[in-house]
Amino acid sequence: MQLRNSILLWAAVALTACALSPDEVLPPVPPNRDLAYAGFGVAGRYDIFLLNANATVDTNLTLWSSFDFWPSWSPDGSRFAFESTRNDSAHLDIFILELASSNVIQVTFDSGFNHSQPAWSPVGTRIAFASDRDSAGLDIYLMDPDGANVRRLTSDLHDDAQPTWSPAGDRIAFVSNRSGNLDIFVMDTLGGAAVNLTHDAATDLAPDWSPDGARIAFHSTRDPTGYAIWVMDTTGANAKKISPSSPDCELPDWSPDGVRIAYDCDGDIWVSDTAGGNRVRITRTSNRQRLETMARWRPGP
Description:
By secondary structure, the protein is mainly beta. It has helices spanning 2-6, 9-14; strands at 35-42, 45-51, 58-60, 68-73, 79-84, 93-98, 103-106, 115-120, 127-131, 139-143, 151-152, 160-165, 171-176, 183-188, 195-196, 204-209, 215-220, 228-233, 240-241, 249-254, 260-265, 268-273, 280-281, 291-297.
């Protein structure tokens, strides 16, 4: 139940914010890639924004009277999948936005269930996601980008969510409470050979694989003062904290070249090197005009 409720956490957080003018945009941070992120503060809802590589344009891409969250880029950077309540205010479905046309396509349709947290595969032929469509809990599924060929990967009695692909596309990391705690697991793409990587009494969430496949970033309460960004080997060993934990820092994302990590901290997007140095804030919401979270680097050549 704890993990399932975390899907709706962002909506609860949104109720504490206010909608005012857009934020100031700060100078760009190498490697000069566009960033998608979720922002709250426009008409009292979450939308997905794009901060361009020169940090001169901050564009609301999903301007809609709904909850739009969890962007996941296609490998060529031309589209992203996201979760939204735009067709059912009580449940999440997965949609795809095409940047060139601004066309939005719904790809999940099971009424009365949640389909959330999409993760596009490295070759672009499949999307992993979490859903409660077949049970009282959450499981991991795969589907084609058009929503066809849905296949259930996990059928554990507990909750499995937040899938993310290895760069080679042969493994999926995910979060589960099957150990009695929220830990990070890895399985193959058939749903087999699931291994607990974290084995920690703390809460470990939001895994993200490094581009070279050697490390996984995640956020955790291992420091009891709050959530911080951590980096570990793909075996779970050598976990190191790379961000502050007060205020909370969450939802890491490796840059495409593997030398930086973006994450949100106290309503802003920050970027640091992979050891936590050279930390720079790239959005400014100290006046609480807008809350920014879930930064996702745009892939591409």
